[in-house]
Amino acid sequence: MGCGIxxxxxxxxxxxxxxxxxxKHQKLKYILRMVGLLSESYYGVPWSxxxxxxxxxxxxxxxxxxxxxVYISVVLESLKKEESISxxxxxxxxxxxxxxxxxxxxxxxxITKNYVNMVGSYDGNGELPSDxxxxxxxxxxxxxxxxxxxxxxxxxRRYIYDQISLxxxxx
Length: 171
Prior knowledge:
Elements: E1 14-15, H1 18-23, H2 26-34, H3 40-43, E2 52-53, E3 67-73, H4 81-94, E4 95-104, H5 108-121, H6 129-136, H7 146-151, H8 163-170
Parallel strand pairs: 1-2, 3-4
Helix pairs in contact: 5-6
């Protein structure tokens, strides 16, 4: 879930990003780029045709106990905490007995330790520690086009986990 452009052969790759959706509509993507509503950084991303476009906040389109391995990659942060709980429950629903769920998430503890270290060693050069922190957790809205500002008005993160909160989410 949240595969982005990293599609693996033999896997079911799911993404619901605007880029994944636009990859299914090349003419629309081209028009949005030509009128300046889609930046080159979004336009030039190569997306696989094998991606299943699906909003993981809705029930996964798979039978109970039908999947051997579920990989959730840096996507829970874009959901509200309650939505993440639902997504993880649904992932366990489709998981075969003895299957494996792997969750990759930003680590709030690691990010904040880096921030504190930057504050202690900041010499006036380079990125400000506060900018690092806000950029890393996704609270900056540095999108360049109007459509990007509309799509991500508050940045891309809605919740950030540390080991304790992620363990709590998993129950």
